[in-house]
Amino acid sequence: NAGVTQTPKFRVLKTGQSMTLLCAQDMNHEYMYWYRQDPGMGLRLIHYSVGEGTTAKGEVPDGYNVSRLKKQNFLLGLESAAPSQTSVYFCASRTNRNSPLHFGNGTRLTVT
Amino acid sequence: AQKVTQAQTEISVVEKEDVTLDCVYETRDTTYYLFWYKQPPSGELVFLIRRNSFDEQNEISGRYSWNFQKSTSSFNFTITASQVVDSAVYFCALRIFRANNLFFGTGTRLTVIP
Asked: Fewest CB within 10 A of the end CB: N or C in chain A?
C-alpha cells in the first residue's frame, strides 16, 4: 500500500520560479488537502478538495493554486515562488469528513 | 473561530517516566472532533486518536491514554512509561462538525532521554 505519495521530497527554487508539487493517493479517497508546516506555527491549510474537479481555499491560499483533475491526484502550484513560501508541505487525504487524515511524507521546499 | 493551544513547546523526560501533553481548544460549536497526531523524526504524520464532543470517556491504548474534559475544553494526552521511540512532535487538532478543515495546534516536541 503506497497510501499518500508526494513528489518531489526536496526542492530548492529561486525567487520568481514556478513549480508544481504532486500528491497521489491510492485509497480512493474523496477529500484531499495541502498543508504547510512552519516552525512554531503547526500545520496550516492552503487548499483542499472534496472531490474530483473541486477545489477550495484554506487558511493561507495566497500565492498557491491547485487542481484536482483526477480523483487520485491533487496538484499544488507556485506560480512565482517567494522566500516566504519556504516550508514543509504536506498532502493529506481521507475517505469522508469524519475519517482521519492520512498524510504523505512531506516536501521540503526552500526558496532563495 | 476555532483555536487549538498547545502551551508546551518542548518537553524532555527520562525513559520510563510518565508525561502528559496538554491541549486546550476553543470553539462555539457543540459538535466537534478532536485529534492527536504524532510526527516522528522521519517526518510523516501518524494519526493516533479521534474523539467526538459527545463522548467524554477517557481512552486507553497500551501506554497511551487520553483525557477529554469539556468543562475545561481540554484533551490531554498521557504516555505512561515513556520510551525513546516516543520522541516526536505531537499535534492536537480540532474539526467542527460541518467543516472540512482541521485546525492544528503548534505542536509539542517530546524528547525521551535514555
From this structure: N
